[in-house]
Amino acid sequence: MWQDKSLNMLTHFLSCCITLQPVWRRRPGCRFMSSSGPPWRLLFFGSDQFAVESLKLLTSSRSSSDRIVESLEVVTLSGDVPVKRFAQQNHLPVHSWPLNNVDGQFDVGVVVSFGCLLHERLINKFPYGILNVHPSLLPRWRGPAPIFHTIMHGDTATGVTIIQIRPHRFDVGPILHQKLHQVPENCTAEELGAALATKGAHLLIDTLMTLPERLAHKREQKQTGATFAPKINASMSWIVWEEQTCDQIDRLYRAIGSRIPLKTTWMGRTIKLLDFVGKCHISLLDQRRKLVPGSLSYQKESNTLAVCCKDGWVGFKAVLLKKRLTAADFFNGYLHQTVQKKTPYQTTEALFVSRKRATEEHQMSTSKL
């Protein structure tokens, strides 16, 4: 009887502890570490489609057997961004940026493609800090556009890194987890981004499962090998025929071509180069032609406009002048008469000129006046 009474008292005590623990964890204004492990009360910062992949996995993990996430809320930017749409469709609480007070409400934060620097006073509100999913093998390609620069510079390997963010600078925090990813041959920035988004989401879940241990064994980034990946802008799309090789133009197109068309000048006008087909192997019927970078050759069999660059020829199926023109349309409407001229020298009508060269020539001509 005494044993039964003792057992009942112990059971009552344990049930009270279990009942009270969640209430204590949610106590408003609590500034103490509210958990020693998952499930976490998590605040997610993100904006674009890359970030959605991590948010998707975090959302589903609330009801999984592992139950990594206890509660999940979202901070995103104004406008109709993918993260906001996903959060609203899945009934996640959404906060606008900048944030109001978050004292004691969350254990850990996660930042994925957010684009805004978080201040130290905000970071300190999270007992386990704020994690960042970054699509490169840090310290290589710190900055806002690591995937584009990975493709543009011909890296054969990249990866995903989970770091703990620090104030004042992007992408310099200690590394908690990192995974290698081989870059497939001829892949585009969009294809690589999709693969790394999925890999990063799973790496984030793996990190959250063992977060206290990861934090205990975090390592600082090396200073050697650090590179910066600035934002992609329209100035990067101008081809310099006399300086860029076939491979460099190919990588440039795969990096930015779907967002910003590659450009050159023709007869003083900007022309956009569309539907890149890569390196061309051509034979010229007129062997007397003096070939210079920017020289044009229409390949009737493949309906391709070939352009001479530093070490060979690259091809495009279409261009944009006043309107979109196929290679055949551009040749028949603009180049046919010029190419038919029996002259060993290129005329300006049969030549693409890089903006850099055009600027230099203009400066030279004006200096002679």
The gist of it:
With 369 residues, this protein is α/β, with parallel strands linked by helices.
Structure description:
- The structure is a single chain.
- By secondary structure, this protein is an alpha/beta fold.
- Helices cover 33% and strands 22% of the residues.
- The chain has ten helices and 13 strands.
- The protein has helices spanning 2-25, 49-61, 82-89, 120-123, 146-152, 189-209, 211-216, 246-256, 327-340, 355-367, and strands at 40-46, 69-76, 94-96, 108-112, 130-134, 157-164, 175-182, 262-266, 269-280, 296-299, 304-308, 313-320, 324-326.
- The protein has a seven-stranded mixed sheet. Strands 8, 9, 10, 11, 12 and 13 form a six-stranded antiparallel sheet that branches.
- A hairpin with a 4-residue loop joins strand 11 and strand 12 (313-320).
- The longest helix is centred in the N-terminal third of the chain and has 24 residues, at 2-25.
Oligomer class: single chain
Number of helix segments? 10
Approximate shape: elongated
Q: Going across the major beta sheet, what is the strand order? A: 3-2-1-4-5-6-7
* Topology, number of strands: 13
Largest sheet: 7 strands, mixed
Structural class by helix and strand composition: alpha/beta
Order of helices and strands: HEHEHEEHEHEEHHHEEEEEEHH
Q: How much helicity do the residues have?
A: 25-40%
Low-pLDDT parts are 12-33, 361-369
Radius of gyration: 29 Å
- Strand percentage: 15-25%
Q: What integer is the average pLDDT?
A: 86
First CA to last CA: what distance? Answer: 114 Å
